[in-house]
Automatic annotation (TrEMBL):
Membrane-spanning residues: 7-28, 48-66, 78-96, 108-126, 138-159, 179-202, 214-237, 257-278, 299-319, 325-345, 352-375
PANTHER family membership: GLYCINE BETAINE UPTAKE SYSTEM PERMEASE PROTEIN YEHY (PTHR30177:SF30), GLYCINE BETAINE/L-PROLINE TRANSPORT SYSTEM PERMEASE PROTEIN PROW (PTHR30177)
Membrane-topology annotation of the record: Multi-pass membrane protein
Keywords for this protein: Membrane, Transmembrane, Transmembrane helix, Transport
Domain of life of the source: Bacteria
Protein name: ABC transporter permease subunit
Family membership noted in the UniProt record: Belongs to the binding-protein-dependent transport system permease family.
Keyword Membrane: yes
Ranges in coiled-coil conformation: none
Localization: Cell membrane
Amino acid sequence: MPLRFDKLGVIIAGLALYGASLAPFATFRANRIVQGEAKSVLEALPPSLAYFLLALVILAAGVALLKTASLLRMSAAFAVLVALGMLIGIAAGHLTPPENTYARVSPASGFWVVVFAFSLLLADGLTRLNPGPIVRVLFLTAVLALAGGMLVAGGWAGLSMLKEYASRADIFWTEAGRHVTLALGSLAAATVVGLPLGILCHRVESLRAGVLNVLNAIQTIPSIALFGILIAPLGWIAAHVPGAAAVGIRGIGVAPAFVALFLYSLLPVVANTVVGLAGVPRDANDAARGVGMTDWQRLARIEFPLAFPVILTGIRIVLVQNIGLATIAALIGGGGFGVFVFQGIGQTAMDLVLLGAVPTVVLAFAAAIILDALIEMTLPTRNHGSAA
């Protein structure tokens, strides 16, 4: 029987073999800001572990290259990703001289290329299996638990990014709280305002175009520019309105960041509310009128439940968007993970940049998966079966 090659698997195998054999696996620096020295897999790891990793990558690349069962593809990808996670921590200890607190070791391009290749293979296997929303959330939970276990066990303590964290542990969690508060708080405010506004735009057609055009115009303003525009009016309010400064309203800081994120959040919430309500079948409304329901009863019992998946899609867009945009808030003193990103840029310390960027990406990714699952679970008809 002739071998059958998988088209996506050809790309994955090529990336994996390049990353493992040709690109550097880790970067060693004498201190946090000097130019790094690239190390291959064979240089970064003890020989036995280096050859184990190369053999595992070659084997998994073969699984990706051929048309194989989805579960086998996922297992091969997961095995490589777990091995990479463990071995990059070992590489940090292997490359760092004893008692040297200044040296820094970080993953290099080859590591990230292999991670990307097998993450793509894992995603491909998941897509082919087509698991239900609860299974996807459980899988995400397992991956996060595994990563959390590595962090707690100290498996990555020797990596440069974790050394940056160790010297900023207290402030890291303070800024993490601010980041989450900004993202979720602005989403909550936009939902409270946007849902009634969307319902009003749906019911009063003459308002719809004007409101959506204004919100569209706000959406086109660059985030840094909008933060800057809000400094003057909020500063004036803080100076002239009694009690405003006491509740946290100032020209710089959290207030302008919160208002900007709130304004950016309105368009997806309002637009998806209008679209969701407009998509309610006419027959459902006619039947509700036929049994004597009032307008508000129809809205609460018929229209809103049917439109909810579309509205929830808008909320998903807002949350993922706000988690990313909250990073920019650090430029005006709003805090969040952007504090580390911009400090790292200013100090030419890439690992400090990653200390802010990686949690932001993980938060956005997790939020997207969880809300996608909720959206699927609220659909009137859904297929949660599995496909090989």
